[in-house]
Fold:
Amino acid sequence: TTLPDTSIFESLESEVRSYCRNWPAVFDKARGSWLVDESGREYLDFFAGAGALNYGHNNPVLKRALLSYLEGDGITHSLDMSTTAKRRLLETFEDTILRPRGLPYKVQFPGPTGTNAVEAALKLARKVTGRSSIVSFTNAFHGMTLGSLSVTGNAMKRAGAGIPLVHATPMPFDNYLDGSTEDFGWFSRLLDDAGSGLNRPAAVIVETVQGEGGVNVARPEWLRALADLCKERDILLIVDDVQMGCGRTGPFFSFEIAGIEPDIVTVSKSISGYGLPLALTLFKPELDVWSPGEHNGTFRGHNPAFVTAQAALEQYWSDDHLEKAVLAKGELLHRAFDELSRGFRGLSTRGRGLVRGLVFDDASQAGKVAQYAFEHGLLVETAGPQDEVVKLLPPLTIAQDELQHGLGILVDATITVCA
Ligand code: PMP
Structure:
């Protein structure tokens, strides 16, 4: 197959890169789990907009809702005004997500993207507690703006800011050491020791599965111990569910597996369900200390995104069909890659639900597997500090035969690269 000419993208003289380093193709159309490039070549999508397309491309149910809204002259942009579309989304979110789980959160629209949700969470925690420092985890990723970047572990990404960022304290993620961090006794000791140099933090921010960090999975008991620590020491717990929320790990919120109730939750990526920008910051009612206008932004009233979000909640979260399907398909991936990794030294797998990592001791092999996959019509990204993990994020709605097809390519890729 001849690949399309991408030279115009590479030659654009821009400080911001406007071409894609991994995938030399010009994509044109997409439906379900598939993308099509300008030459008509089809690609199975195990990337799904980095988790923003959990219900697939151009999901027909969401598309219908969007088109009928636009055709009826529904309002598109409304800042923080009250609109019918916003009310319908809030009512559906309450009915399908919050009330059935007994979660008491207030919902804020902090701005269009995940990093906006994280910034709002960090700001709120600082304002509520009157304390400034935030604890985050090794290999965490929370976004690219200054506050969220400050709590992101990856040195390469932090280098984008040039100089040191707002001070934040790193803590070892689950399994980063040897499992001895589980009871967090060491952290309590640091807090009590006036000589340790640790300021009492306003909040701890955590992903239950670190996506960009390389599919590092926190055990439920570790998450519970962390939540207990935060409660005992009066530190707010923020769960960043931007990538792992909206059913990626099975349940709507990824922290449900641990039975914890974070003080603040960030949601974005797949909440609109259609790839439209939308973010939510959820917080306990008693944390609602903001005065009007203290956290605002022009694009908080993206009504077409409210419409598709509402349709997605109604379609996929009124019952537990999707959650069960995610767990079943995830189990299929888990078994296949577990068996594959037993066949090769230096290969392992980890994940939860429909986020799965293939972890290569030799990072160059992960890149070669992703490259082989691209050449054979499958899009996968690499993640982790050395890009040593092939990260799989297929749409949650992917059909069984599509999943098997992608799986087959990845098995062939691994055998070709590692043999
Ligand atoms: N938090 C997490 C856990 C993420 O994975 C991401 C995006 N990869 C973000 C925050 C930032 O979201 P956005 O890129 O929409 O700003």
Notes: Residues 50, 113-115, 118, 141-143, 207, 211-212, 240, 242-243, 268 surround 4'-deoxy-4'-aminopyridoxal-5'-phosphate (CB under 6 Å).
